[in-house]
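A quick aside before the break. I want you to see a complete sequence-to-structure record at least once, exactly as it would be stored in a machine-readable document. Don't worry about memorizing anything.
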Amino acid sequence: MSSSPPIGVSAEAAGSALPATRVEAPPVIDLDAPELYLNRELTWLAFNRRVLHEGQDSRNPLLERIKFLAIVSSNLDEFFMKRIGGLKQQIGAGVRTPTVDGRTPLQQLIACYAEVRELNEQMRSLALELHALLIEQGIRVRSYGKLGDEQQAELRDFYIRNIFPLVTPQAMDPAHPFPFISNLSLNLLVSVRYPNDDQVMLARVKVPVGPGIPRFLTLDAGSTFVPLEDVMANNLDLLFPGMEIVAVEYFRVTRNAVVERSEEQADDLLVLIESELRERKFASIVRLEVVKDMDPVHRGMLAAELGLDEANDVFEVSGMLGLRDLFQVAVVDRSDLHDPPHAPLDHPKLAGAPNIFHTIRDAGTIFLQHPYESFATTVERFVREAARDPKVLAIKMTLYRTSSDSKIIEYLVEAARNGKQVAVVVELKARFDEAANIRWATRLEEAGIHVNYGVVGLKTHSKVIFVVRRDYSGLRRYAHIGTGNYHPGTARLYTDLGILTSDPVIGEDLTELFNYLTTGFTPKRNYRKLLPAPKLLKPALLDKIEREIRQHSAKTPGLIQFKMNALEDVDITRALYRASQAGVQVDLIVRDTCRLRPGLPGVSETVRVVSIVGRFLEHSRVFYFRNGGSEEYFIGSADCMKRNLESRVEVVTPVESADARQELRNLLDLQLLRDRRSAWDMQSDGSYVQRQPEEGGEQRGSHEQLIEAAERRQREATRLKKRRPRAVARRGAY
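That is the input. The structure line, written in tokens, reads:
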């Protein structure tokens, strides 16, 4: 009886049976075989299953579970806008070329739809479970019809005074064209008729959720939430006086966000991005969500008017549409239903230091971990003191995303007013933040700051602040290089790493980088420590992987450890397969998308893939190579994705100080080995199994353990300062 060849091995390579006297050579495994690679879209959806599991996990506080449900809903909205929109464009263009995993765009779309529908069912089931648990805690999401007369009157009065003037009904008949339906808008499809008249007419009413108008109206001191659409549906006599309301049905649309033009043909990049934003507003619709009991005729009519395939692009929903709006419920002020409060701590080396530049200069490099250590008292302080220090002559930085209340923007404006040279590279094409970045660019230019939009054809995704200061010994360059955006909000929610450094070589490299970013000129630039993309980073990573293969031996076994958001690049994945085949241990901490399959015989037997899903969003990137004992650690802005490595300006920096390397070592060991709560191990088929705490063992995930470690570092630093008030406190390891 014949057997199938091993995975990735062709029948020809496997060969036929040989005489027992001969030793058969091991089969040659084709590392381009599609079955070796997981699909990008499906692995991202699998990540959202893990996020949803946090909502399903009764070990989490109730309002945190609500938050995770809202996160998954928001993620799926973005998935349809970006990934499904892109697949539909490929299908429309007739693209049939398969991806590395062997799927055409149409096959990917079909597989994604099946996964999304299953995920939706789990979300609806969880929503019902959480609703019941909220009631037990005195928090209610109630329909208008179940309220008492006084509460209904209160909401009706509030609606009339604060929302009703904004509502515009739009008829849908031969005399009125089908109305424009905005992205992610929630809508009422109202069937009305005149009294004693059988003719039913349709009207669309948009629910005006937006700035200042929440999805839920509240009663009982904020413990009762009533959906705005339900209030509107039960007060339609205000919009259609004297008419009979036959039916009210809800629907919601999602539009394609993949609307990009060629920069090379644009005379003005700012005008180009503004044009793209206008086009995105009117982009094609990729999803229609309807209530489950919608009239089939109405459902078909909406699908036809919106240009959708009713059988595939219409998603029926039981219960509330747009679960992302449950964020409003998740922030109810009930400390007993939230995670224990967490306040980022001051960095032990910076707390109490009178001058941040003197401290950085004395330390050489200061290692930062957010959100465990405060963004405000480290990164924001760095920019604030640079703006006000009379010895600082210039500030340069990259800006990919920030918040509406960003203090960094204010400090840059202040620096310009103080006569310093300020240059900011603003990435206008940061997806979904384009409009905000246009506003920031305009504000900065009005303050006299030199604003540049980066290099044509490349997104500037690096996270760098560069300061030139006149020290006692002449000009000295200081820098912050990080893994996260300069966004104070996400700095409290995302796990990110960074360094504050006065390393002169890194300073020289950053001078080269900013000269490149502000001119786009690409002569041979001499980078001695930094690994910028797209020129150097990918070749350097591939070279270092190959070096690990060459140096691997029983005496000095090779070890590669990467921590990142996504592993999608095929070249990097293939190189890691080769490393595993050579016997190198490969440890990967990958938050979401991962093409590589661990544990495949003859291919990836020495590979371990771990995903961390917990209180904070994993966002840091770390690259480690044992290098025959001469260890190398790097952190930076780049994931191992083709777009990051080949079409973005990224910056990865070595981490050379002993204490920072020790903290990185502890971080990697913790998440790879000691996290028994929030770590998931990928199986060879691409599925994940969540680790379970051992009886009597550590019950907390790595995020909680890192919070404790930061507190321990601060206590130790305080103790040392009390004993030796003039000494520089050193950070301890956890």
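Two observations worth writing down. The mean pLDDT is 90. The longest helix spans residues 105-136. We'll return to this after the break.
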